[in-house]
Each structure stands twice: as structure tokens, then as C-alpha cells.
Specification:
With about 80 residues, the chain is α+β, with helices and mostly antiparallel strands. It has one domain: N-terminal domain of TfIIb, CATH 2.20.25. A hairpin with a 4-residue loop joins strand 1 and strand 2. The longest helix is centred in the N-terminal third of the chain and has 7 residues. The protein is globular. The chain binds zinc ion.
């Protein structure tokens, strides 16, 4: 599946609750982040897996796109 096909399907889990035309996402940072145009939540793509959790999106809502970090691994390494 290409990223473009992926973008046709997936939506921001917060905004989709308003209807199927809501919560369209834009790929940013060389395709490592998904940004919701509507609410400003940002979802990391970790190891090709989009992490579409509202709690995750909430963490980055006030972070400008240009300041988003590398998304990192899907499962954080234990210390
Ligand atoms: Zn949203």
C-alpha cells in the first residue's frame, strides 16, 4: 500500500467522530508524521505503523510540525 492510499483510508480518531469527511490527515516530516488539519493533533508513524491514538495525538497538539522529533521505535526500548 502506498502512503497516498493509506491517507485515503485513515482519519484522525478524534475528528472522525464528527463524520466520515472529518479528520483528514497530511503526511509531514518525510512521511514520519501524520498531521490532522482540523484539530492539529499529530500522530507518529513508527516502523511504518501509524499510531492513531487520541492520547498520542494530544501529546503533540501544541508542537509545531518543524519541531516534531523522530517518531522512534514502535516499542520503546526498556531502560
Ligand atoms: Zn483531528
Amino acid at each position: 500500500m502506498t502512503n497516498q492510499e493509506l491517507l485515503e483510508i485513515i482519519r484522525c480518531p478524534a475528528c472522525i467522530q464528527k463524520g466520515p469527511d472529518h479528520g483528514k490527515l497530511t503526511l509531514e516530516r518525510d512521511g514520519s508524521w501524520l498531521v490532522c488539519d482540523e484539530c492539529g493533533r499529530k500522530y507518529p508513524i513508527r516502523e511504518d505503523v501509524p499510531v492513531l491514538l487520541i492520547e498520542e495525538g494530544d501529546k503533540w497538539v501544541n508542537t509545531p510540525v518543524e519541531e516534531l522529533p523522530e517518531p522512534g521505535p514502535l516499542v520503546p526500548a526498556t531502560a
